[in-house]
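Final report, Chapter 2: Outcomes

The project's central promise was a pipeline that accepts a single protein chain and returns its three-dimensional structure in a standardized token representation, suitable for archiving and comparison. That pipeline is now operational. To close this chapter, we reproduce one record exactly as it appears in the project archive, with the input sequence first and the structure output second.
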Amino acid sequence: MILPILKYGDPLLQRVCEPVTMFDKALEVLAKNMVGTMYAAPGVGLAASQVGVLKRLIVVDVTAGEKQGQLITLVNPEIINKEGEQYEEEGCLSIPNFTGRVRRPYRVIVSGKDLQGRERIVEGEGLLSRVFSHEVDHLNGVLFIDHLGAIKRDIIKRKIRKKVRAGEW
């Protein structure tokens, strides 16, 4: 099932998500629906908070479903190591049609669990590192625009307010 993606302005996007404690069928269904939603958008990552569920769950596929075996699902992900730096253009499914240059680590190591509760350690470089960082930020109530300079952030917020007034958001 394709889930509705919350847009900037929804207060749930700024909330810190709760750790997952139950590794059950409901979690598997949520993850499956998040994957379908991410691919349909199309996107390369999605956090549970973006679909209104305040649980620490992310799905990531930097190929956007174009290559088999690239999907990563992590429960309670935590970045345990960061190295280097990259400064690239970034967007978000919750802030459609807006982008900005964000500084992120070039390489990260993420610890978490799979859907059965087994420990996982995943390393990511480049785009994968950026997506992990972006999605973990979501779980902490942080959006990519929070990393932008004040002027760029204010321009985006003004444009969004204009879209809200016009009924386009």
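Archive annotation: The mean pLDDT is 97.
This record, like all others produced under the grant, will remain available to the consortium after the project formally closes.
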